[in-house]
Every structure is written in C-alpha cells, then in structure tokens.
Here is the input.
Amino acid sequence: MPSALEVSYGLDGKSRVQITPTQSTFFERQQPHPVQVVWKEWHGHKLPLFFDEATEQPWFTQDDDGNIILQYDLVASAFYLLSGWQEYYGKDRDPLGRFPYRASQQSRHRMLTKPLVNYYFEVLREAVAKAYGQPLAPRLWDGKPFATCLTHDIDFCQSAWKVAGKPALQKGNLKLFLQLALQKFTGKDAWFNLPEVEKELKKLNALGTFYFLPETAPYEGHPNADYDVASPALQKEISRLAAAGHEIGLHGSHGSGLKARQLRTEKEKLPASVAGNRFHYLRFDPVKSPALLEELGFAYDSSLGFPERFGFRNSYCHPFRLFNFKERQMTSVWELPLNLMDVTLNHPNYLQLSPAEVLPALMPMLEEIVKFHGVFTLLWHNENFSSYGMEAGLQLFREITEYVQEKDTSFFTAAQAVDQVQKI
Here is the structure.
C-alpha cells in the first residue's frame, strides 16, 4: 500500500477514492441537531447518516477510470460527532453546567455504546481497500488488539471516617464508626489508600494514571478535595507513584474548565511533567475548555464521557483532537474519551445496577472497542477500592479488568495511549 493515499473529499475526477460531499446547509445555520437522520445498512449494522437525504445508492460506485466513489458524506457526519457540534451549539445544560446525555443524538437514537465514527471510518477503509486492491492492516497496541487505560481521580483521602462512619453510627454500628475514626486520628484514613490501589495495578502488571485535585475550597456549594496536595504526606505519595512509572495528572477543580488562571494555578501545584487533565465531576465546558487547555499547554484531556451513562460521548473509541469552534480548527490538545466511570454504575441518579448486572451490561461496549482496536478508558476512584466506597467496588474493578485481560488487552497510562496515536 502506498504511503500517500489518494482520498479526496469532493469529486475531483482523479483521486483513487472520492467522497461525495453533502449539499446540506446545516453547518452554515449553526443549529445543534440535524433536521432529519436517515439510516443505511452496512454489513448488518444500521448506521445513521446525518447529512444525506436518501439511501437508494450503494455505498460505493466506480467511475470509468476505476476510481471508487463513496456516495455518502461520512466525513460530515464524523465531524459533527467528533467536534462536539451538538454540545457547542446546544443550549441544554445540567445544574453543574454539563451537556446532558438526554439532550444528545446518542440518547435520541440509542447509540451511545456504538462508536459510529469508527463504523464510518471502516466504510472508508473498505473503499480504500477496493481502490488499491488490498486491505489496510489495523494498528495494534504493543501487538495486542486493544488498549486499556486505568485511571483514578483522587477526590478524597481524608474523610472515610466521616462519609462512611456517620451512616454506620446512625445504623447503630458503633464498632465500625470507632474503627474508621481510629484510623483517621492515627493518621491513616481508610481512603488514604493509594498503596492499595497500586497493589491492584501491580497484579495486572499495569501502570495507572492518577489525577490529583489541588483545590480544597468548595465551589458554589460543591466539594473539592478533602486533602492538601502540597502536604508532605501527599507529596510523598505523588513522588512514590511517579517513581514507580505511574502517570500523575491534574484533576481540574469545579469551575476551572472556564477559568484559565485558576487551572494554571492548580497545574503549578503538581509536577512540571503533568501532561493531562480530567475535570472534577467531568465539568468540561464545550465552549471554553478546548482553547483553555491548549493555552495552558496540556497534551491531552480525558473528561469527555457522560456521567449518566457509559459508552462513547463523541461516538469514537480512539483518542482524537479537540476542536476550537472560534478558530475553526483542531487544537493541539488530544481527547482520550472516558468510557466508564465507577459512579455511573450505581449512583442513585444514574444507572443503579446491581453488582451482578454490571459486567453483562458492559460487554457490548467492550466488544466494540476490541473490534475496532480502540482504547477502553476506565475511571475508578480510590475510595471505591476500599470497603467503604461503592457496593462491591473492588470486586467489580477486578471483574472488569479480568475481562479485558481475557480479551488480550495491553495496559497503557493515559499519556502513553495518546503518545501512541500521535506517532501514527
């Protein structure tokens, strides 16, 4: 296969593969949602086409010179989903200022666990294979079919005695309350458990990514960290984790997705080598955050997942570059999509799955990632490795990671996964 493929967006009459561009004026109107979506089958899968009006044509035709003509504008549909167009131009926000799942095309068409952009690119890949007479080999991850990034937002290190102890006391479990209180007042709160998290990673022969939250003051009534990242105890843990090869990232506090000065101050409290960010409560602002992250020199962000559901918020299972709508161009900042957050599984406002329901529910999404040689990004908070976090938290982490091991994953830190993609 030649190193430079002839793929034209537009019918130029000469490229080996030519993509028929849409005639829709949707992007000129700057509306959040397409007026009409049509569906076309591809190898047994129904794919939505956002900017094509009919589906009578085959996917491909061939001109007199043997060039392949792709009859549908998959590029426009992919751009719509990857850029976050619906989020930028949509006005819907939840009480925390986040774009809600219920307002998305993924919710409307029940396609959150189907990485549509990967399917679009697979159609294009087939067109290229037809044009050149040979298939394109997939990219592997250190020889493995897909990658897994194990990430950990460090929100709480000092309050298990209070958060878990108070309910225990209310239920009459004085023994548990006293146990947690004793741990706290002897300097080892039950959630100051980063060595325990690291032990689980070692069992997997994996390196993790730990996002630390430098802000302690509440924001509009919402809590930030319960620890001081500058304290000797936390600095010792950060240094120890980094020395062991784990990645240290920034957990941008409430409101920092809108304020460059605030996020810069927080970044400066962590090692200079910090490459990535994930916003606390996933408070990524579609309008301001991409440019802000680029201004501050972040290599990547990993905030784009819906807290309410697991799946593919931008319908893609690989890292991609964020888009700056004001400048009408990609930023230098990569997005590592967040597929699953532990809290999503059983929070009263979210899915409320029982432990037995979790892995069967996740399998279809994970199979899509395996199929497209993508990246599975998992967020598991440190408190949910303890007995005082979510129900069966440690058991579920082990079940999920055992499953991806059985599927022959390769483990990467978030920064390593992004770096792999940049090398292509």
